[in-house]
Automatic annotation (TrEMBL):
One of its GO terms (molecular function) is transcription cis-regulatory region binding. It holds the Pfam family LysR_substrate. Residues 7-63 form the HTH lysR-type domain. InterPro entries: LysR_HTH_N, LysR_subst-bd, WH-like_DNA-bd_sf, WH_DNA-bd_sf. The keyword Transcription regulation applies. It comes from the Bacteria. Keywords: DNA-binding, Transcription, Transcription regulation. Belongs to the LysR transcriptional regulatory family. The keyword Transmembrane helix does not apply. This is LysR family transcriptional regulator. Signal peptide: none annotated.
Amino acid sequence: MYRPKSTVEQWRIFQAVVDYGGYAQAAEKLNKSQSSLNHAVAKLQQALGLALLEVRGRKACLTPQGEVFLRRSRKLTQDVESLERLADILSSGWEPVLRIVVEASLPRAPLYQALAEFRPRSRGCRIHLVETQPSGCQTVISQQAANLVFASRAYPNITSLPLATTVYVPVCAPDHPLAALAEVGQTELEQQLELVLADGNEQEEGWARGEQRWIINHLHDALSLLRRGVGFAWLPLDVVSPMIHDGILVRLNMANQALRKRFTHLILPGTTPPGPAASLLLSLIRQHYDGHEEPGNTP
């Protein structure tokens, strides 16, 4: 088993002697005797078999080897300080990890904004962001396997917060046959392939679906297929608006078709109140969803 030849305290003293320009100055700053600092550095050099410092007059100067070890030792002491701070953070109840599950069909720009603001205040908390389907959300909630779940429906006896209403619009590629029609009815839609961003339970939403349909698990896959002229899809308006503006996708002009909407619910599956990290992220999420507006919600 490996046994260290040096201690963190020896490296801290070595750094202090360099930073303050000598043993006497470092001893005064550290409130230690000069002899104890001399002894610590001498013992460190003896253990390594290398000269890290050489005294020129009254000043301690780095040797070439000392310059290398100074850079590496700073990372060592910083890592130790980070570990000690982490212990303080975790002992205060701050969560080391937050697991967030998002239903695939829901837009999440406000969530990304909240996470961007959470990062500098996260105090080392790691984020696991997972995309899943409605059935996956249900499993995660029943097993209490996440801190926060974004789902398109609420669940009985589970704490949930309504966040936003998302408008879904039909889109296709500019060269798709539907794009050439001045007005599109349900009959025309039923004759074309539909890409359904769901897990097969789409009938529960009350959205009429055509016989020709592919079930797509991820929004990225649906967009990639649409851009290649494969089928049409009902997708979140705030996601596809930039693509419509740039001419990458075309929004179909529906005849006598009401807007399709989905709600975003924030589910808290746990039976205990969220911890301090989750509470902070939760407040940022609510702030950004409250200020989020759908672009062009008119048909």
